[in-house]
Write a structure and sequence with these properties.
single chain; about 475 residues; alpha+beta; Uridine Diphospho-n-acetylenolpyruvylglucosamine Reductase, domain 2; Alpha-Beta Plaits; 18 helices; about 20% strand; globular; binds flavin-adenine dinucleotide
Length: about 475
Amino acid sequence: MNAIPDLTLARLKAAAGPNGSIDDPADMAPYLTEPRGLYTGRAALVLRPDTTERVAEIVRICAESGTKIVPQGGNTGLVGGSVPFEGGDEIVLSLTRMRAVRAIDLENDTITVEAGCPLTAVHDAAEARGRMFPLRIASEGTCTIGGNLATNAGGNAVLRYGNMRELVLGIEVVLPDGRIWNGLRGLRKDNTGYDLKQIFIGAEGTLGIITAAVLKLYPGPAVTATAFVAVRDVHAAVALLGIAKRESGGQVSSFELLPRIGIDFVLKHTPGTRDPLAERHKWCVLMEMTSGRAGNELRATMEAVLAEGLEQGLVLDAVLAESEQQAKDFWRLRESMSDAQRPEGGSIKHDISVPVSLIADFIERATREVEAVVPGTRIVAFGHIGDGNVHFNPSQPPDADKQWFLEQWDKVSDIVHGIAHELGGSISAEHGLGRMKREEITHYKSAVEIDLMRTLKSALDPKRIMNPGKVV
Ligand SMILES: Cc1cc2nc3c(=O)[nH]c(=O)nc-3n(C[C@H](O)[C@H](O)[C@H](O)COP(=O)(O)OP(=O)(O)OC[C@H]3O[C@@H](n4cnc5c(N)ncnc54)[C@H](O)[C@@H]3O)c2cc1C
């Protein structure tokens, strides 16, 4: 028996329109579990409306009947935010049929897209008109613009272009009472009161359903210079970043940290990968610069940065990509790092950020303290250190029992998150809170901040139908 009355379900199906609903358990299954399989829930119905008006009608029915809604995009979020709980009294509202590019304005450098548009489709549409949309993440073939906004997604080019908050100019939202707010403005300047769009960005579907957005476009790069660099240690990596930013005049687009152990895991488990450097170094960085001006200037800048790094003893060795393929090979090492940990047994994942200046201190301290609690654990600390964001993912000791190791999760996370917090950092730099960190965040935000978040939630969603049990 469904927890939602049959009459309500019938109204919801009708509102979703032809081909807009799924109630067969086998067909619903992919919408009910997320990629790591950590969370699998139940739902009374999966709805896939194809217009904003249909979304609004569905939400009106839910508001009237008190039916809880879980908004879903590509379902690539990794914190349980996009899937329902186990009770079966929620519906999943997937935006994946709303994938149109509504407009491109080349003079304003904007693109207006529907929320279910996959990120790669936005890249393609921009590139077809000689522009670039700079958000790049490994899940880009599946994740959607609505999900990217709802999680304030970051990725590889935040250092230069910012995360989703900085890349959006306007949004269209269906509010929890079913009203549509059309905030699809393409303005770079608008000082007419509260910036309402920002309330919905990073809200993980708890305040409304984003149905469309106006995004910023940029000129595509004419040249890219990519270097794989061995550095003395993490302090040296941060110092090198400083040199690169200064010397290039802001052309550094990515600056990623790769530890020896992570590189070794990738080389062992990812066919077709090779170490770009002849010797084994403890820490490496993948540095990329881009320029809109053709010619050799950018390469010369990269060489000058590396030369200064060598001179100062920060750089131990480096190789500059000679071709697009070689640059892709460097990136493959970075992108495979998370997956390559899996065959090594259990790993305890963290997605923290601290001020860039404290990254090295964080890694040193967290490594020391986690190793003291779980001797033999293998720390894989990698990621977007140009933004102060580290994936600090201890892998189990080789001979340990996986289950036992995973049972240490809370103890290890308390240490890692505690240190990040002490250093003025965040326990979730990219993936959000979802279901996974909803309780934990209350230990790290002040009572005032939590109270403000709850006030906002109550004001916008007094009936608590919008993704309840997530974030706050
Ligand atoms: C291999 C891999 C690599 C990743 N790399 C990165 C990375 O580098 N940087 C990064 O930031 N993230 C990364 N992620 C996480 C994930 O891809 C992002 O969080 C992404 O933005 C989620 O988009 P989605 O469409 O899949 O959203 P979903 O997973 O479907 O949803 C995520 C949250 O947003 C809500 N939501 C979805 N659509 C809407 C909407 N239209 N309106 C309101 N709420 C909505 C959901 O309810 C949920 O709470 C990665 C994930 C994977 C699997």
